[in-house]
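Journal club prep — side note

Before the paper discussion, L.F. wants everyone to see what a predicted structure for a comparable chain looks like in token form. Sequence:
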Amino acid sequence: MTILIAGGGIAGLTLGLTLHQIGVPFRIFEASREIRPLGVGINLQPNAVRELFDLGLEAQLDAIGVKTRQYGFYSRLGRPIWEEPRGTWAGYAWPQYSVHRGRLQMLLLEELLGRAGRDCVVTGARVTGFESAADRAVLHLGGGEAVAGELIVAADGIHSAIRAQMVPEEGPPIWGGAIL
């Protein structure tokens, strides 16, 4: 059984590490010719950290992130308006991390390539669609290439070609005017 993963972002790479850990063959197809450390700061909630710890990445997360002790809003004078403990300080078994998204993605990529080999991630492979049949799934790539496997996982981001094919009436993402 080979799992075909569309997208080499955080979700696709983490899935690849998990599949490798349990012995399931996979390949990741990433549109970018080179995976680079792009993005901004993000927070990894304890439930996500648990999965990364299960992959043996605790020391690496400590090296690239900061354990988040609390969230808070403060007045212009620095007085607390609202504060809430996070991670282990909030009673969870795992911490919460604040980390640069790009550094996390590069950590996941380096770990995956080191564990599963360099051929598990194919870059410059833009997913354009898919087909499914009773016995196989086919991932279509730009340039007319087709790759067959038993299952396709869509982790190809906000402009997902797979989502667009599955739910064409949804259309492209629409800016709502706010970032949370």
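L.F.'s comment for the group: The radius of gyration is 19 Å. Keep this in mind when we get to the figures.
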